[in-house]
Specification:
Blueprint: H1 32-38, H2 42-51, H3 58-72, E1 81-86, H4 92-103, E2 111-115, H5 122-132, H6 143-156, E3 161-165, H7 175-191, E4 196-200, H8 204-208, H9 212-217, E5 218-223, H10 230-240, H11 254-264, H12 268-285, H13 292-297, H14 304-310
């Protein structure tokens, strides 16, 4: 998914180059950055559409607000954390990348992201942290050695937060391994004073709340599947305002919302895939707007032959 600021960038004008002719409408249906992008040639616009955009919606805002609280609370108050849960394709991984991008601008303190998929022991978790920081790690390195290495490097680099994606993997090990992983996560928070941001499937909450102390320190947030309502309409309109199409899209019809929810089961990644595909096809066909018919066709992405034949125009 790409679902607070857009990831799209406006290409700088080159001195002496001629911009494409302005479309006949005023592009009032787009936000300021997208208006400039709408004047670019087709190929450049398609690249921007496929790159994606991040839209801040209510659930994302709440999670980002809490993240900011965690990352700006003085260390002497003790490290805490959060758990962001959602189905596959709901935007959890993108949330972690967004947090990393936002706070990388503040100072040189790093935010570490690891993927815990398949990491059923704390030894494996420590290994993922060391790898992400280019730290010393070998197959023969025992768990206590990895633990000390992780603590040293987290302190040395003044790591600001640790984001663990696919945290539900800790439940896939033995009860003993699961207990040690939970103890290890608490140890990192206590000793390294690093806030812990966990991202996982809905079942991850059951794994973490088995430890009462850890559960009390992790505030839980959920990314629910989208449904046909005003929140989804507002989100969709915000997405359309970022797509560099030269005509207003026709998506206020309730049939559009119903189709997208049915085709995606409310999953954000699939919704964005369909809308992105429809927007690309709108550029290639000259339609320059997303319609219900275009969304229906976009359940299958544009063919390679169609793409290659249509990206050279303005």
């Amino acid at each position: 998914m790409t679902t607070p600021a857009t990831q799209q960038t406006v290409a700088p004008k080159k001195h002496g180059s001629k911009a494409p002719a302005s479309p006949s409408n005023t592009l009032d249906h787009l936000d300021e950055a997208a208006r400039a992008c709408a004047l670019l040639p087709n190929l450049a616009r398609i690249e921007l559409i496929r790159k994606g955009t991040v839209i801040e919606h209510s659930a994302l805002t709440r999670a980002l607000d809490h993240t900011d609280w965690l990352l700006t609370t003085p260390e002497e108050h003790g490290s805490h954390g959060m758990l962001l849960m959602g189905d596959s394709g709901s935007g959890k991984t993108t949330f972690g990348e967004l947090v990393q991008a936002i706070y990388a601008k503040d100072d040189d303190r790093r935010i570490v992201i690891i993927d815990a998929s398949g990491a059923r022991t704390m030894r494996e978790v420590y290994g993922r942290v060391l790898q992400s920081l280019d730290g010393p790690v070998s197959r023969t390195m025992h768990t206590p050695d990895r633990e000390m290495a992780v603590i040293r490097i987290l302190r040395l680099l003044k790591v600001r937060a640790l984001i663990v994606d696919e945290i539900q993997s800790v439940a896939e090990g033995t009860p003993r391994d699961q207990r040690r992983v939970l103890d290890g996560l608490k140890y990192l928070m206590n000793v390294a004073k690093v806030p812990l941001i966990c991202l996982g499937a809905p079942e991850s909450e059951r794994s973490l709340v088995t430890d009462r102390h850890l559960a009390q320190r992790l505030k839980v947030f959920k990314l629910e599947p989208w449904k046909v309502d005003n929140d989804f309409l507002d989100f969709l309109l915000a997405v359309l305002a970022r797509l560099p199409l030269r005509k207003p899209s026709l998506l206020r019809d309730e049939r559009v919302l119903e189709f997208l929810i049915k085709a995606s089961s409310g999953g954000l990644r699939r919704i964005m895939s369909i809308v992105t595909s429809a927007a690309v096809q709108a550029v290639l066909s000259g339609e320059e707007r997303v319609t219900l018919h275009g969304l229906m066709d976009a359940v299958d992405v544009p063919s390679r032959q169609v793409r290659e034949g249509g990206v050279h125009g303005n």
